[in-house]
Amino acid sequence: MVDFMVKENKREICPSCTDLFDRPRHECGVCGIFNHSEAARLAYFGLYALQHRGQESAGIVSSDGENTHIHKAMGLVPDVFTEEDLQRLKGHLAVGHVRYSTTGASNITNTQPLLVTHQGRTFALAHNGNLVNSRELRNSLEKEGAIFQTTMDSEVILHLLARKAGDFEEALQKSFTAVKGAFSILLMTENSLIAVRDPDGFRPLCLGRMQGDDGESWILASETCALDLVAAEYIRDIAPGEMLIIDKSGMRSLFPWGEGKSSPHHCIFEHVYFARPDSEVFGINVYNARKKMGEILAEEAEIDADLVMPFPDSGNYAALGYAQKSGIPLEFGVIRNHYVGRTFIQPTQSMRDFNVRVKLNPVRGFLKGKRIIIVEDSIIRGTTGRSRVAALRQAGAAEVHMVVSCPPTRYACYYGIDFPSVEQLIAGKREAEEVGKCLGLDSLHYLSLEGMVRATGLPKENFCLACFNNIYPVEPDLNFLKMS
Ligand code: SF4
Question: Is the CB of 406 within 6 Å of ligand 1?
């Protein structure tokens, strides 16, 4: 029996999110719980910790071994679930998802987890990443008569699974080896939880353990910050190319692409911007990596200035690293209004840059006559950057320099990050000097590719760097490129 609840929450664009239009948009977060009497509640907490990975919609599917319950809606985690909703999500298993759409439109039909029942078996799927051959697979599945319910790439996996006859684990492996691209996926059946990570390990996925009321409980999540919130012990990352199955008989790993054959290409942007600084991602602490990026940037870009500052909260940790290494004091010359709500009455008359100013306001009395170094973690379109720099000049800043803790973002991402097309990227066809002029800066310096990688402590070969160097670890199919 499937108990279905999908709420059509109205979603409003908020002034506090305006900078998302100038920044790489987040992707998705997943969280799964096995063997806990409050599985859905723990999944809810996990999603709460992962909210930064997707703010469009949230959903949880739970199972008590016989009945499956689902609740999902557009909106932020605390708006989507009420206490009553969580109480209705009964069972010892749960899988949850927060979404920012990178393929498929942003609407209630495309929210996750996806839930299907096929030949008496129920599957709930939560996906972080992007498949790069989903269009090709979808076309051939549709020719064979498949009817898709959503426009999401993830749905092809369920259709592939439904078509494979015989042993379930064999069918699982065959289905996943047919898809290409980035996927950290949680798949729940009535009585098992399965984690699958693509052979390149683009997106993170980790395993933690808790003490439940009926023995050991397990949590799978995009980032370790979700484990911290539910007081779970971090056990390990799911390896690139690993399929981990947890059920009553225990835990076992399959390697559909061959054991030891996967070579990681982790998304380095997780460390630059996406992941929470209190998470361990790809075995590295994000806070330390970001701070180190700032330190290396201070070695590469020496500037004579009075102060270093971030635009809160982007670039905070790199700014700290830059300031400590350069000896130039870190200051907070811009104050963020943390109480900008999601609903906001807009000014009736056109007020230039209103949405930027309502969120960030320069400290005039402090900035007057100062030579400033702004530390940013990335510049994508550059649209809000211009207004922010102008606001600093209006506040009396004598010089405004900017250092960026990653190299110029010049190429599109096909693996789950919503980078705009090359034409929309401010550095797509411009050198640093020209970008600096566009933003109204006195100078602009980017961290080198080598410096960015060095800050992580991992070898360059372990990373996807495609949006910086145009070398794509997995070639997207031609239809996908047309679609993007
Ligand atoms: Fe990450 Fe850039 Fe690679 Fe996309 S192209 S996966 S954003 S490093």
Answer: no
Q: How far apart are CA 21 and CA 438, in angstroms?
A: 17
Tell me how crowded residue 360 is: count the other CB atoms within 10 A of its CB: 18
Ligand 1 contact via 274 beta carbon (within 6 Å) = no
For ligand 1, is residue 415 a contact (CB within 6 Å)? yes
Tens digit of each residue's pLDDT (9 = 90 or more) over 279-306: 999 999 999 999 999 999 999 999 999 9
* Residues in a beta bridge with 169: none
d(CA 327, CA 346): 42
Those residues with Cβ within 8 angstroms of residue 388's Cβ, 6 or more apart along the chain or in another chain: 311, 334, 356, 360, 374
Closest CA to 418 of 103, 14, 56: 103
Ligand 1 atom having least distance to the Cα of 473: 3
d(CA 280, ligand 1 centre) in Å: 18
Report d(CA 98, CA 48) in Å as an integer.
Answer: 9
The residue whose CA has the least distance to atom 2 of ligand 1 is 467
Kindly state if the Cβ of 284 falls inside 6 Å of ligand 1. no
Taking the centre of ligand 1 as the mean of its atom positions, its distance from the CA of residue 268, in whole angstroms, is 7
Q: Output the residue whose Cα is nearest ligand 1's atom 6.
A: 267
* Measured distance CA(5)–CA(1) in Å, rounded: 13
Contacts of 482 (CB under 8 A, 6+ apart): none
Distance CA 25, CA 421 (A): 13
178-181 long-range Cβ contacts below 8 angstroms, 24+ apart? 178/137, 179/131, 179/133, 179/134, 179/137, 180/131, 180/132, 180/133, 180/474, 180/477, 181/129, 181/130, 181/131, 181/132, 181/133, 181/134, 181/153, 181/414, 181/415, 181/474, 181/476
Q: How far is the CA of 103 from the centre of ligand 1 (A)?
A: 15
Residue range 308-345, pLDDT digits in tens:
999 988 899 999 999 999 999 999 999 988 877 555 56
> Is the C-beta atom of 474 inside 6 A of ligand 1?
no
Q: Known catalytic residues?
A: 28
Tell me if 411 sits within 8 A of 466, measured CB to CB: yes
Six token digits for residue 398: 């004598």
Which residue's alpha carbon is at the smallest distance from atom 4 of ligand 1? 413
Mode of pairing for the β-strands spanning 206-212 and 233-237: antiparallel
Q: Is 413 in the pocket of ligand 1 (CB under 6 A)?
A: yes
Q: What is the residue-averaged pLDDT of the chain?
A: 89
pTM score of the predicted model: 0.91
